Structure formats: structure tokens, C-alpha cells
Amino acid sequence: MIRYIRKTSGRKAFTTPLFRSATGREARLELLWGDRVRVISSNGSRWKVKARGATGFVDPSRLQTGSLLELYFIDVGQGDGVLIRTPDDKHILIDGGWPRRSQPTGKNAADFVDWKFVKDYERDNIHIDTMICSHNDQDHYGGLWDLLDANQHEELDADEVTIGQFYHAGMSWWKSGRKRVLGPSVHTSQGEMWTRLLEDRTSLEKGVSSSGNYPKLQGEWAKFLKTVKGAKTRSGSPSPVERLSHSTGTLSEYDSSNLRIHVLAPVEFEVDGKPAIRKFPDGESKNTNGNSVLLRLDYKKARFLLTGDLNLHSQTSLLSDYTGQTGEFAADVAKACHHGSGDVSISFLQTIEPSCTVISSGDSEGHDHPRPEIIAACGLTGRQVVKNDKLVTPLVYSTELARSIALGRITRVDEMRGFTGNSVAETYDENELRKLKASYEVVDAGARSAKSGKARLSNRRLAANTTYGLINVRTDGSTIMCAALNEKKLVWNVSSFKARFSGVG
Fold first, then answer.
1. I need a labelling partner for 36 at 20 to 30 A (CA). Which of 83, 327, 444, 501 fits?
2. Has residue 127 been placed in a domain?
3. Integer Cα distance of 292 and 168 in angstroms
4. pTM to 2 decimals?
């Protein structure tokens, strides 16, 4: 029997303890509004249940049959990863961070998804109903690649991964001799346009094929799409592939009276009878980022805006393309564009006016995200609600603020001259540690290879655990809850506010 943690009134309205015993007061952990609970035994004043991979006891009055809309903003370091679970148990995965091999922590969205399905849901297989790659930068598609790659499945506890539908933004890396390019562009009355877009599964298969007189996809992007080519649905058929643009309108599989997903960008144009998207100035990265998929998810009265890596050029263009309709961007919760980069339009942020902004920030000091002026801008352009002389909204979350630490993997330990310990010793004192040297490897975010180094073991600090900055956002369509876990006390820091829109129309 499956139940979910329900909301009550009072100071602990959104949480309930998972007790260690049927009668004691000691809690194993704190469960959150909407958490999935499998009832093992319904005898007594407390029911024995399993939730979040742990077994314990809960007060049955804190359980409900109805499920929530859940959004998980995953700490993938430098990159994006968002898992969405709908109330009818469909799963949407948008981006996944760098591949594990290019992650300082060795983890990305694939690992969280694996935990969610195997440990939390207690399922043998992972099924993603909708996988969306917001654009063709590796800090967004790498985690999707790891999830789909059969050669990576030893990293997962799940036995199988299936995909109902794969969506992408259209812009791709193409071969041009030994170089990679974004394809040809032409000048039109509406500006410069990219004219070579990846389309459906047939287009993908031609692009990754080694034969045929077709433009060929390039590099890591091509390798990822070869993996997408091999993806299967639950029935064993090849997963459908489709390009998204504002012409898509809404995703048909999520078009209901309560839930709707609107595709707002890239904005699609027509050149010589074929689809095209806008070319922005200032180089390739401005174009891959600027042509990210922009989604708005509406659930009852709540709205969520998922922005990829949109930048100043693209945001300014969107305000022009949606003249008289900029209310389409307004939302209760927004994922910040491009990890908190300073390359944003304040006017665009003002049209969103979010009650909550979630920044998927990274650890890489080369990027230094989120930028302080953007954290301030998220506050200044957010929807202000004050109650009892306390600020309710705007709220600004960051999956992980910049930190000055490099996580290295120890590869060997060498004895230095003067070391007197023996190889079977159980302990070494401080004097002996000075004579032991560790070799290590550090992978910077997005690096193709590790940097090696050596350090004496004395006076060093051990990274005993890696704490991930997962941000939970959940709603019943009226109240929106945002929560982050206090890892020391294993309790939730919770904020909530009311959704402000009229409902799905």
C-alpha cells in the first residue's frame, strides 16, 4: 500500500518524523510533504513503513492517498539537472550535468535518478517518460549520457533504463573537416538564422551514420546521440526523438485540465520553406546557450519556468518576439538562467517576477557562479510578499555556493626517506605521517583528463563526505513548498508560499 506524507497546520506543517520504534520518540529521519511511503504494517497507533530507503514508524494521520507535483533541482556541480515527477507518476528529466568522468565529485543527475528509483521507489528499473536535453553543451547532456550508456550501467543499481520520449533543441555540433561547427547560417529580413537543425530520429540516425551523403554530427555530441539512438521504450521499440521549439506549443503527453507544459523557445522561423532559429552575435557559446529549450510547466494555479542557459542576447530577443505576450514568462518558481551567470537581462527577470529562484550553481572557480549581482537581481526582481513584518518571498536558493576546495582521488601512498613504520601497522602518529606522501588526481569541472599531484599526509584534511545541495520544490497546485536538507541534523529547512495564477487554461 502506497501513501504520501500530508501537510498539516502548525510549525511542522510540512514535515513528520520517521520514528525508529512503534512507541519511542527517537526519529530516524524527517519526512517531507509529498514523500512516498510504502506501508509494511497498518497495526497499532503507528504504522510500520519504508520511505527514502529507510524503515521506521509514522503516525497514520500524517498520511494521504493523493500525490503532489515534485521538482528536484539536483546538485550536479557546474551544470543543470532537474527531475520532475507528476502526480500520476510520470517522470521528466531535463539535463544531467557533466559526465561522471568530468565531475570533481564523480556524480551527476544519473546517480540521483538511480537512487530515486531503486532506493526510494524500490523499483528494479528506471523509466523516464520524457528526457529533455535543453541544448548541446556537455555540462547539460553528460549526465543523460551516463544514464543511457550501457557501458556505464555498472555505476547504477537499476537493472535497466528505458526512455519514453527524447526531446532536444535542434542546434547541433556538425563536422566540417576536422573542426566542429553549428552549421550554415543565412541573412534574412528578421536577422541572421541557423538553417541546419537536427530533427527527428531519422535525422539523428543519418547524422551519426558513417555512410550516406548527409551532414555528420561531431565529437562528444555525436557520441551522446549515438547512445540516444540506442535508447528503448518500455515495449522495446526505439525511443522517439523530436526537436522542440515555440511552434511545438505544448507537449501533448502533458496537456490536461490540471497539468500543461508549454514550449516557449527556441523561437522558430522559416527560411526557404524550412525551419530555422536565430543566430546571435559573439560566438558559438552564445548560440548554444541562447537557443536553449525554454519550458513553462503549469499545474493548477502554480507555474514553473525552466530556462536552460538563456543569456542576455536570447532574453532580449524573446522580449521582442513575445511583444504583448511577455506574461507568458511569468512564474512562481524559476530556474535561474545559466547557473547564475551575469549574462542576463534584468528586464527579462522582471517579466518572470518569481516568488522563488533556484540557481543550479557549480564548484568550478573558473566560472564563479552564482555571481553576487545576480543573487541580488533575483531578489530585486522577485515577487515581494511580507507578512507580520517578515519576508515571505522572494526566495533565492543555490544548489551549491562557490567554495574553495578541490576534491582529489588518492591513487597511491609512498614512503619517504626516514619512514620507520611497518606495512602492517594499524596506526601512524603525526611524525610518521610527515614521511608519507599521497599521489592524487583532481578533475576540474568539464576537464577531459585529471591533473595529478602529490602531498604529504600530515596536516591534511580529509573530505569525509560530499554533501549535495538538492533543492526540493513541491506543490498541490495551490501551496508551493521549497525545502533543503540540513545534513547535520537531518531535518528540513522549509519555506512555503501561495501560487498566484488563475489555473491551467
1. 501
2. yes
3. 9
4. 0.89
Q: Is 308 left (phi over 0), alpha (psi -120 to 50) or beta?
A: left
Mean pLDDT in the chain? Answer: 89
- 370-394 b/e with 16+ CB inside 10 Å = b? bbeebbebbeebbbeeeeeeeebbb
Q: 341-358 pLDDT, tens per residue?
A: 889 999 999 999 999 999
pLDDT at 363 over 60: no
Element (H, E) at 63: strand 63-64
Question: What are the C-alpha distances in Å from 468 to residues 40, 73, 112, 308?
Answer: 30, 11, 10, 20
Is residue 331 domain-shared with residue 383, that is, in the same domain?
Answer: yes
Contact 56, 19 (CB under 8 A): yes
Domain span at 440: 408-456
Cell (9 digits) for 459: 596536516
Residues in contact with 367: Cβ distance below 8 Å, sequence separation at least 6, in sequence order: 78, 339, 341, 445
**Is pLDDT of 441 > 60?**
yes
In the numeric block, the cell 588518492 is attached to 410
Question: Do 23 and 77 fall into the same domain?
Answer: no
End-to-end CA distance of the chain: give it in Å, rounded.
Answer: 34
Interatomic CA distance for residues 180 and 446, integer angstroms: 18
Pick from 84, 123, 4: which is nearest to 472 by CA?
84
Do 100 and 217 sit in the same domain of this protein? yes
Q: For residue 259, what are the β-bridge partners?
A: 299
Question: 399 near 361, Cβ under 8 Å?
Answer: yes
> Which of 291, 306, 329, 322 shows the shortest CA–CA distance to 169?
291
How sure is the predictor about 402, in pLDDT bands with cuts at 50, 70 and 90?
Answer: very low
C-alpha cell at 500: 498566484
Percentage of the chain beyond pLDDT 90 is: 71
Residues 123 and 195 in one domain: yes
pLDDT top residue among 291 and 470: 291
Q: Are residue 244 and residue 115 in the same domain, yes or no?
A: yes
pLDDT of res. 280 = 97
Residue 340 has what pLDDT? 76
- The residue count of the chain comes to 505
448 shares a domain with 365: no
Contacts of 422 (CB under 8 A, 6+ apart): none
Look at residue 442 and tell me whether its pLDDT is greater than 90. no
What is the structure's pLDDT at 491? 83
How many structural domains does the chain have? Answer: 3
